[in-house]
Amino acid sequence: MADVKRKKVLAVASRGGHWTQLLRLRDAFSDCDVVFISTVPEYASMVEGERFRVVPEGNRDSKWKMLRSLVALIQVVVSERPDVIITTGAAPGFFALRIGKFIGAKTMWIDSIANAEELSYSGKLALKQADVVLTQWEHLSSREGAQYWGSVI
């Protein structure tokens, strides 16, 4: 029997709650080759034994920082060539999934559980870009929008 190629997953999240929620999904990647990406170098210790890459923080309030983050993510995504990109946000995750679409990666955005009233800004953008967008809140799901698969985080 031929060896089955393990899927390569880029798991992307910025700091704080985005990162915490991504770590809660870690068991879902147990049969994959995972590269964790975040904006905080110290987070590497939280995924010891896994590959970890750092990209600059950026958000819509700091255009130059956002551009630096985008350039770094282009380099990472193109060099890693993932099969799948999963992100819990925010801007670096959105950039990663958008770049991933150009190289044929499957993409999933999981909106933060903190967004109970509406999807996050990045989550709304992801609706047009990601293969799957999930919300943690059933009342935010819709046929054309984010899907609710249960409380996954």
What is the structure about, briefly put?
By secondary structure, the chain is α/β, with parallel strands linked by helices.
Our Rg estimate from Cα atoms comes to 15 Å
SS element count, helices: 4
Shape field: globular
Main sheet attributes: strand count, strand direction, barrel closure: 6 strands, parallel
Strand arrangement, major sheet: 3-2-1-4-5-6
Which class of secondary structure composition applies to the elements?
A: alpha/beta
Integer average pLDDT: 92
N-to-C SSE series?
EHEEHEHEHE
Extract low-pLDDT stretches.
none
Helix content: 25-40%
Proportion of residues in β-strands:
15-25%
How many β strands by DSSP?
6
Distance between the termini: 36 Å
Textual characterization of the structure:
It is a single chain. The protein has helices spanning 17-23, 63-80, 91-102, 121-126; strands at 8-13, 33-38, 51-54, 84-89, 106-110, 132-134. A 6-stranded parallel sheet has the order 3-2-1-4-5-6. The termini are far apart. It has 4 helices and 6 strands, in the order βαββαβαβαβ. The radius of gyration is 15 Å and the shape is globular. The mean pLDDT is 92. It has 153 residues and is an alpha/beta fold.
